[in-house]
Each structure stands twice: as C-alpha cells, then as structure tokens.
Specification:
With 330 residues, the protein is of the alpha/beta class. It has ten helices and 15 strands. The chain has an eleven-stranded mixed β-sheet, with helices on both faces. The protein has a four-stranded parallel β-sheet with strand order 12-15-13-14, covered by helices on one side.
C-alpha cells in the first residue's frame, strides 16, 4: 500500500470486501461502541507500521488488539489468568480492555516492546462482524490524528485520515463516544489505567480491591506507558479547553475574551457570552457528544471551549479524565 492512498468508503453491506482488504494488508477504519478504530491485522508488522505513520503516533504508545471470539483471544494472549476470565465472563463483549501476557505471535510494535498486550472484545455488531469476517485479531487505536479528539463518526475519520489510510467503514455514529476502560489484571491488586464506560464501581462490584492508577502518567522517556492514553497528549482540539464548574462560568471577566463555546449538561447562566452552547441531555449524552463537539467548535472558529465539570462517578470519571488531558498545555 502506498503513502498517498485512495481511501475507499465501504458501506455496511460491503463489510466482507473490507475484511478481505484487511487480510491483504490494508488499514481500514471501522465503528465500535466507543469510538471509531483504525484497524489492521494484529499479526502484520507492515500494516501496523502503517497505522503509526498514518496517525503520527509515537512508537512507544501501545495499541489495543480487538478480538471477536475466544479463539482469537488465545492467539493474542499467552494465557488468560482466572481473574481476567471472571471479568471477561461478566463484561465482554463490551468497552473493557484487559492487559494480559502477550503471545509470541504479536509483534513487539503492538505492545511498544512490553511483555503485555491490551485486548478487548467490542460489543458493537458492526465491529464484531467485521473482525469475524477478517478472521484475524485487529489492532484498532482510535481513528484520528495522534493527539486530536477521537473520531466518533466516519466523517470525522475522513477529516483526519483521508488519503492516509485504505478505507473507512461508513457506519453510524458511536454510542459511548469515549474510549474503553483499561484494566491491568496482572498486578495485585488489579489497577485501572484508563477510565471508560465500565466504571470503577462496576469493576469493584465484580472484583473488590481494584485501585485507580489512571493518573500515573509516565514521564520517563526511556519507558513505554503500560496503556494507551497514559503518557502523550490526547483528545485536544485546536481551541483551548477549559474545565468550569457552573459557579465559575462567567464569574471572571478575563474568561469572557475571545470566541467561546460551552458544552455541559446544564445551560450556562451567561449563555449570551458564548458563540456556541451545547446542552447535553444527561451525562451519557455529554460523553457521547464531547469529541464531536470539539471538532464542530473548531470548524466554527471557537477559540476557547468551556466544559462543565461533572462529579467523579460513573462515566463522569472518564469525562473528567478526557477533559483534563484535553486541557493540558504544550
């Protein structure tokens, strides 16, 4: 596959063709329940290298491998500990990624040289069918340029990656809108490395003693992070992102400069100070619309995006994690 690519649009009735292309070494974006993933054969080192190139992704940022059945799981992981199997039985298919010992078949480029591999089984029917038809596990990082908001529609994928990848499965917008929870079950006690829709309360109900290690951002440039999203800047629009409580919004006169946008589950009291106001129906709606709103506001020329802070519970922990990383300065 060349570097200047014609990015084919695959309709949902053309999944088999897209799967054939994957087996031939192509890089194909496809929908999952979380965000769109950038898929390639997890055993194909050349295709995997193409993903890093297309995204501009640092080589020390490991990839998540997506499987559609237990056979694929055992091709990817050298073994599955009992604690992992109990979580698989409860939460798969779904937005939970588990860190497991990698098999020898997985190239070191997938894991950034680490002996562990991150694996999940998506619940989205298009994703599951696509992986099944490909008949190989797929690496599938978020389908966007590295550091940018993840793509939650095929149009967002095309905006970032048209001409850089071989194809896009043009499915519906994603449901959850934030990446999967990542859990390291090889430590005792198990630890959350990234928050998602499977929240810490749900995990502790299944496995008491789980700890939150998501704020352990690697700073040592000699070592790769254990999970995607722990080290490098992520989720950032062109606009500056600012996290605001309802009490803070509009209270400081210095916050009123520039073209500002708002997103939250409440309408701001100072709504007239904003060029764009996005009021979400509930916290799940907030999560699902966050990244697409970032992109929309960039298109509208917004300079500053004020994002409503939410309680650190349920998917609110994932929202606040993404907002924190999106608001980091260079």
């Amino acid at each position: 596959m060349g570097s200047d690519r014609t990015t084919k649009r695959y309709e949902l009735n053309e999944l088999a063709q897209a799967a054939d292309a994957i087996r031939a070494g192509a890089i194909i974006a496809f929908p999952t329940e979380t965000v769109y993933g950038l898929g390639a054969n997890a055993f194909d080192s050349e295709a995997i290298a193409g993903i890093f190139k297309a995204k501009g992704r640092p080589q020390d940022n490991p990839l998540i491998v997506h499987v559609s059945n237990a056979t694929m799981l055992h091709q990817v992981a050298s073994h599955v500990p009992d604690v992992a199997q109990s979580l698989i039985d409860r939460f798969w298919p779904g937005p939970l990624t588990l860190l497991l010992p990698k098999s020898e078949r997985i190239p070191s480029s997938v894991t950034a040289g680490l002996p562990t591999v991150a694996v999940r089984m998506p619940s989205d029917p298009v994703a599951i069918e696509f992986i099944r038809l490909a008949d190989v596990p797929l690496v599938a990082p978020s389908a966007n340029l590295s550091g940018r908001p993840s793509g939650t529609t095929w149009q967002a994928v095309a905006e970032d990656l048209d001409g850089k990848i071989d194809g896009i499965v043009c499915g519906p917008a994603t449901q959850i809108g934030l990446e999967s929870t990542v859990l390291d079950v090889l430590h005792d006690p198990p630890r959350i490395l990234r928050h998602g829709a499977i929240d810490i309360a749900m995990l502790r109900h299944a496995l008491p003693g789980i700890i939150d290690a998501s704020q352990t951002i690697a700073t040592d440039q000699q070592h790769a992070p254990a999970s995607p999203g722990m080290k490098h800047r992520h989720y950032q629009p062109k606009a500056s992102v600012r996290i605001c409580s309802m009490a803070e919004q509009g209270a400081d006169s210095t916050m009123k400069s520039g073209n500002r946008g708002w997103i939250g589950i409440h309408r701001p009291d100072q709504a007239n100070d904003y060029v764009v106001v996005v009021k979400c129906n509930n916290i799940e709606d907030y999560a699902s619309r966050l990244f697409e709103t970032f992109r929309m506001m960039d298109h509208r020329g917004i300079d500053i995006i004020d994002c409503e802070a939410v309680p650190l519970e349920g998917i609110g922990m994932a929202i606040m994690d993404r907002l924190k990383r999106a608001s980091l300065k260079s």
